[in-house]
Amino acid sequence: ARQTFQVAQMTGLSAGNAVGAVFAMILGLTLGFIGSWKLALAILAMVPFLMVAMAVVFKAVMGGGDADAAAKYSVSGEIASEAILNIRTVRALMAEGQVTKGFNAVVNELAAKESKNAPKKGLAFGFGNA
Fold first, then answer.
1. pTM for the complete prediction?
2. Rounded Cα distance, 25 and 8, in Å
3. Are 113 and 69 in contact (CB under 8 A)?
4. Sign of torsion, CA 78 81 83 85?
5. 86 exposed, middle or buried (CB, 10 Å; 0-12, 13-18, 19+)?
6. pLDDT mean over 18-46
7. Which whole-number Å values give the CA distances from 12 to 18, 23, 46, in the listed order?
8. Phi, psi torsion values for 63, nearest 5 degrees
9. Average pLDDT over residues 27-40
10. Residue 126 and residue 54: Cα distance in Å, rounded?
């Protein structure tokens, strides 16, 4: 499942968004230099500060690579995908309650941990968008 996610990240929406962002920046700078070169240079000088701010946001939101959280996300994904792929079997065995209990247990553990980090992430996000 992890490899599938990585391939999707390389070729999916994120690649399209990256290309779109690069072209938007090039077009914006071109129009900016045409309109007012002084203002365009001032805005261009702010780009490194914006990159640092977004790096802080990325680090706060994505975390430091917490292996425990990644394992729990993996387990919750496995539970959900197995239940969805085998929905007929789950339904035939009337195991919906068991599946949802297992999924909810893992997700609630993650939610409790993530709620402790929410204020830090909110401050970082506010800093990055200021």
1. 0.50
2. 24
3. yes
4. negative
5. middle
6. 89
7. 10, 17, 29
8. 80, 175
9. 90
10. 10
